[in-house]
Specification:
single chain, 17% strand
Length: 157
């Protein structure tokens, strides 16, 4: 008899996104993304961090202050990193992401051809960026859904 408590595809791919988020050096927000094609093959992963070649010790990680004195001017979000790291065209793909995408990421997701976004947290719900992202996704026909009852199973050996 086969085991019945194995991970669903949604749990598996969100687990990959969550694991990727753990690479982020951001103290306040670690976000990970995993892109999957129609054959359930991982074709891109990413996390939030500074661009390649930019020393993260030379740039601020702060959330408050003038724009140029905060991380917001410099950090690349997990979603564009996953898109840029993709190994194949993304038409019709699904993206698993630990935080609902902002409006800037939504535009890139749509342009890349991704058709579904599965997310964990929607902590910025109702903010202008969140509202804009949801309008963009709806207009472009990108399906979004929150993964409920997700628990990351950590195996310690």
């Amino acid at each position: 008899m086969k085991r019945s408590d194995y991970l669903s595809w949604d749990e598996y791919f969100m687990g990959v996104a969550h694991m990727s988020s753990m690479r982020s050096k951001d103290e306040s927000s670690q976000v990970g993304a995993c892109i999957v094609n129609h054959k359930n093959r991982i074709v891109g992963i990413g996390y939030n961090g500074f661009p390649i070649g930019c020393d993260d010790d030379d740039f601020p990680w702060e959330r408050d202050g003038g724009f140029l004195d905060t991380k917001y001017a410099y950090v690349v979000h997990a979603e564009p990193n996953a898109i840029l790291n993709a190994t194949v065209p993304l038409d019709g793909a699904r993206m698993y992401v630990t935080l609902f995408p902002c409006n800037e990421c939504a535009k890139l997701i749509i342009q890349a051809g991704i058709k579904e976004v599965i997310f964990l947290s929607d902590k910025y719900v109702g903010t202008p960026s969140d509202i804009a992202a949801k309008r963009l996704f709806e207009s472009a026909g990108v399906v979004t859904r929150q993964l409920d009852n997700y628990t990351l199973q950590v195996i310690k050996q």
